[in-house]
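Protein: Metallo-beta-lactamase domain-containing protein
Species: Arcicella gelida
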Amino acid sequence: MTFSQKFTIHPVGQGLFYSGILKIGTKVKFSMVFDCGTKSVDKAIQTEIDLYRTETNISSTKTLDLLIISHFDKDHVSHIEKLLDGNIKVKTLIMPFITFQERLFLVLRFLSQSKGNNSNKEFIIKFILDPFGTLKNNLDDNSEIYLIDGEDLGSPIPQIENSNQDTYDFSENESFTIVFEEGVKSELEDKDIEKTRFKPNEAKVYKVNHRNKGTLKTSIGLALMEFLFYKRNIGEEDKDFFDKIEKLFFAKYALQLSDLSAEHKLDKIIEIIKGINSFKGSGLQQIFVDAQKEISSQADKIKKEPLEEKEPQYLDIKDSNTTSLCLLHKNLISGLSKNQQSRTTQIQKFMTPQNRVNIPWFNYYHYSHWSNKTFPNVLLTSDTFLLKPVQVTPFREHYKYYWNDFWLFQIPHHGSEKSSDSLLHSNIPLRAYNFINYGIPNTDKHPDQSVIKDLVATGHSVRLIPVTQYQGLFFELIYP
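Structure follows.
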């Protein structure tokens, strides 16, 4: 029977909604989503969610096989609730291992970027602080949650691809499952629960180091695809800053969490935050200022230099999301059929978000260099900071054995000048295509002109794909 893989970068504007569908014949056997959010027009992403739910039939099956959350910014998670509406169960949930202190910081930063709290923001606030509890209707005792940790550096070794053969006969009853090796995953220990403050849940929760791959396998054990994650660790100064934020926040609201039972700690914090209607008026901005002053003062004491008298400087809270999962998914069954087909199609919605036109991509771009080994492999960076050598070098090292195994690369953070420049761009294989996802109008100054200039200078502008609320892309690999 025909086996096909289809991946879509949905046109949702300032945000990201990336999805995958694997089929045997006409039946969907595996469905996945990497982030689902936007800051642009809601109608654009709602249309895409409706189309995806229809194509995968998850509204009827009530199952999404894999949901990956790269990080907790609004434009990446705002529509997860709508994606999973109707108690759709998530079989596998993957997200970064992230401490409560950082999640609290991210919530306060979210409030600083919005005008206080209202009912439309309640899901995002709850989801950042308590993702498991917020998705309690979408997780059950058959669900597995993997928290990706980046402490152990290393370069994963690729699996051997399946040998060439003219045909591969999939059974109509075949099933696909994401698995991590038993020896590399471990259930959350008490110290990890204390760090994350995740509530107990029916789902099984594991911690996995990012050097260990997830593998999509059939029920007979055939490996179809590798999922290789990368999580950049935050620095000690960032950790100190988040700790200070938590300390000052608790002091401001006279929180004594030691007096509360574990199941009520997050509820109490969520209740307080939901009652904040003005970031500046609440005095929360001063928490950031004071936390940064303490960090700066400690640093100066270490240097034994006097603290200069100047306006207090604190981290740019708009651009300080320090963790974001990267994902490379690599096809392992390339070359199994002499008659296999690859198709790439532009999604255009220039008239209205609902007026969706699909245009074959070969009318516009040359792609004869694609090979079975690189299509449809994609390296997603989401909002990861890959600007300095200390950021780019471990990222490049992590993927060094896979560096020629993808055809499409995501320029980080919607093309922000604070996330990448020529240092990263000069490392991207010249034969690879690149995409930047951003909103129109360009209210977030994404992509920045300096990033475009760097892509031109490094020879990547000829293979640069824009993804907005009016233009997207999907690509398929079909084995007849």
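Remarks: The CA atoms of residues 340 and 479 lie 5 Å apart.
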